[in-house]
Amino acid sequence: MKSQESNSLVEMNEQCKSVAAILKAISHPQRLMLLCHLAEGEKSVGELEGLCGGSQSSISQFLKLMKLENLLVSEKRGLYVYYRIHDSKIKKLVFSLHKIFCR
Amino acid sequence: MKSQESNSLVEMNEQCKSVAAILKAISHPQRLMLLCHLAEGEKSVGELEGLCGGSQSSISQFLKLMKLENLLVSEKRGLYVYYRIHDSKIKKLVFSLHKIFCR
DNA sequence: TAAGTATATTATTATAATATAATATGAAAA
DNA sequence: TTTTCATATTATATTATAATAATATACTTA
Fold it and tell me: Is residue A46 within 8 Å of residue A77, measured between CB atoms?
């Protein structure tokens, strides 16, 4: 009984760690904005720049960060680099956020 | 047409700011853990300490931070201080996170 | 191959978050 | 009233994040 409770606390701890890391990657106004636009589908860096504002450098750095955290993947086609959301869970999260906070 | 688009981008920007602030307040393993336990109902600081681990000081500071961000409210009754989630949106968010990432 | 365009990287500085230890408050019990 | 217990506050050192400017890469087109 006791050990089961304490196991699930340990497990909960692990899950909180990994979910908090994801939230941390999202919890910046511009990164959230980027994700919101990407939730509608793949976009190039230039398009995102136009939609989200901010300097070229910061956009690129934010995208890189989210890629490192496995929220995004990118693909170079010709002169452009296209980013998209990697994991359907992230897409679900963005939609949940929208549902909860934007209506 | 154009002005409407740009209005909604401005609005989106505002929303991203405020949602990102909430996410930022949540995006730490221990703060998320605290919130998860509080999602089940009001708890005293001591109970949370037992459930979440960490030093007394850090727990108290994290709770204060989340209170400042209006995620929590507290009430002193006798010797104990009880915290609970202030806003049903936050409760919804915690449940969504659980649904998306913990099954 | 030279020039232009899109994106990435690096360096730097400023600011913010974290962990920790030490101390303070304030209610309750002895 | 002194002591104890629960919680809060303050101070501080360390580390992480953010913003910005400058430069680099690498693909494409002239």
Answer: no
Give the range of the structural domain holding residue B68, as residue numbers without chain letter. 2-101
Residues A26-43: tens digit of each pLDDT: 999 999 999 999 999 999
Secondary structure (DSSP) of chain A = -HHHHHHHHHHHHHHHHHHHHHHHHH-SHHHHHHHHHHHTS-EEHHHHHHHH-S-HHHHHHHHHHHHHTTSEEEEEETTEEEEEE--HHHHHHHHHHHHHH--
R_g of chain B computed on alpha carbons: 16
Counting the structural domains of chain B, the total is 1
Nearest-neighbour CA in chain A from B33: distance (Å): 6
CB atoms A20 and B36 under 8 Å: no
pLDDT band, residue A14 (cuts 50/70/90): very high
Return the CATH number at B64.
Answer: 1.10.10.10
Cβ contact, residue pair A36, B12, below 8 Å: yes
In chain B, positions 44-103 with C-beta closer than 7 Å to nucleic chain C are 55, 57-58, 61, 65, 76, 78-79
Distances (CA, A) of B27 to A83, B35, B83: 24, 11, 19
Question: A residues 20-59 near B, CB within 8 Å?
Answer: 20-24, 26-33, 36, 51, 53
pLDDT at site B2 = 43
